[in-house]
């Protein structure tokens, strides 16, 4: 089988996805990279080999006889670079979030449908063992019909990961409800089997806004400054010069199928994990930890208790990033480029996560009132739900 020729735009924090897609002789290889950073270019050669061509602009990248492009740039550039790739007629992997504004996300879907270029979004959590196992339990009917989903996201690395570079500046992320929350909102929708139509929220910059020691860290990357010893959060240093995104956010959601949901995100907890609770009309499930070897507890009788669920399911272990999810994500993208058709990752769901986050942010930053999340046009949703039929 001839390797697919893949180009990459951006070799920064999500470079691991490009590395997973680089499988020379096994079906796909990275042949060209566009990134203005000399450090990124040098590290790309080290990671991908001397055969990768380094180019200076998108025109040169698109001239490389590519089959696909992976957009791994900072969030505010996703829609810009993905649009250019789609317009060039190339199957496109767009890292999540699809965009930082709802109008840009909708425009991307319109562009993909008009050009017939395949669009895939990097929601790797749909491939994480903990989420797939919870989805299988729900689909089995064991807890009955889903009525409510709650997610608590404890971001113990928040000060290091999101408040020392461009992530702290709303011009580039809008809100961390997009950078981080797009994952969780997508999972809530997947587990609940519906999309948010009403959202309201509260949030604040409670901790990191008070820290005055700031530094321009554009000469460094996250792992240059990260340390588990950076604790407590109030003792953090070298924060980004601009810090204007919330470090704690709370959303309440009403989905189109009647499910009620909530999402809470905090960036100054000591622990780092996600806790999902799914309540059906015949039981409930909850993950205690989200890594391989952790557990999913299942309650289906009134004789159970906090210490004694009716049964416990161990979360499977996987190799590589996010419990093997990154490798599965890259493999699904490569298969999608070759064959098209349905994927576990949903472009419509990626748009709905952006829509929910954007309207939630609007609620948080104004009066906290409920916002109505607009639906996609029926024809657009049908096109992507059907696996982008007729795409190239």
TrEMBL record:
The segment(s) forming the Gfo/Idh/MocA-like oxidoreductase N-terminal domain are 4-123
Classify the source by domain of life.
Answer: Bacteria
SUPFAM superfamilies to which the protein is assigned, alphabetical = Glyceraldehyde-3-phosphate dehydrogenase-like, C-terminal domain (SSF55347), NAD(P)-binding Rossmann-fold domains (SSF51735)
Provide the GFO/IDH/MocA-like oxidoreductase domain boundaries: 131-286
Task: Fetch the InterPro entries from UniProt.
Answer: Gfo/Idh/MocA-like_OxRdtase_N, Gfo/Idh/MocA_oxidoreduct, GFO_IDH_MocA-like_dom, NAD(P)-bd_dom_sf
An example of a Pfam family matching this protein is GFO_IDH_MocA_C3
The protein in question is named Gfo/Idh/MocA family oxidoreductase
Q: Organism source for this protein?
A: Propioniciclava soli
